[in-house]
Design a protein that fits this description.
Shape: elongated
Low-confidence stretches: none
Structural class: mainly alpha
Mean pLDDT: 89
Number of strands: 2
Strand order of the largest sheet: 1-2
Length: 199
């Protein structure tokens, strides 16, 4: 019964974080129009994907980001064709953050605030650095070979994507490390965060 309750709680928390990813991307983005009717965005959606992985583990956090931001893509005519790429990349962000934070550093087993701060920062940087590199590369091949865009256009979009993804990553790392380390003691006291799940 206890395991079932924990699973239900995890699914509810995953849904909440997916909703935060969706809302932050859909309503708090600055869209930058690109050639050919495409666009790139400055947004903080990835912050909630990383936060989910720090709080819930890699799979649940990754799924929260993947589901929330894929739904956001599906609801936007400009991004709808990129939804499969979004799902894959956001899931990977969560898995990497979960691997570093929970399998390598085991942050939920620690009561040392400096240790937790350091490793939540390292894990966030690891997941979002992957995205800074992978998003433009995967986007380039996806747009050229799956969507059939001309090579030059795919190159231009990849370069713009690299720039905005980097800015998004820097802002998201700062935001998520601040939020996680602020809410972690409250969640531990309330019993909503326990000695951690495996990612």
């Amino acid at each position: 019964m206890k395991t079932k309750n924990q699973t239900v709680m995890k699914l509810a928390q995953t849904a909440l974080l997916a909703a935060l990813c969706f809302v932050s991307f859909t309503f708090l983005q600055i869209k930058i129009p690109m050639p050919g009717g495409d666009a790139t965005s400055l947004h903080i959606g990835n912050a909630f994907c990383v936060l989910g992985a720090l709080l819930l583990g890699g799979w649940y956090g990754g799924l929260a980001g993947a589901i929330g931001m894929t739904i956001a893509d599906l609801m936007d005519p400009i991004y709808i064709t990129g939804a499969p790429k979004t799902f894959f990349l956001k899931l990977c962000i969560g898995l990497i953050v979960g691997l570093v934070a929970h399998h390598i550093a085991k942050i939920n087993d620690s009561t040392d605030k400096k240790y937790v701060f350091k490793w939540s920062l390292i894990a966030s940087i690891a997941g979002l650095s992957f995205n800074v590199i992978a998003d433009p590369i995967v986007g380039y091949f996806y747009k050229q070979y799956i969507l059939g865009q001309p090579q030059k256009m795919a190159e231009v979009l990849a370069k713009w994507s690299a720039a905005t993804t980097f800015v998004n990553a820097v802002v998201s790392v700062i935001l998520v490390v601040f939020i996680y380390n602020a809410v972690r003691p409250i969640l531990l006291r309330s019993g909503l965060l326990v000695s951690q799940p495996k990612s």
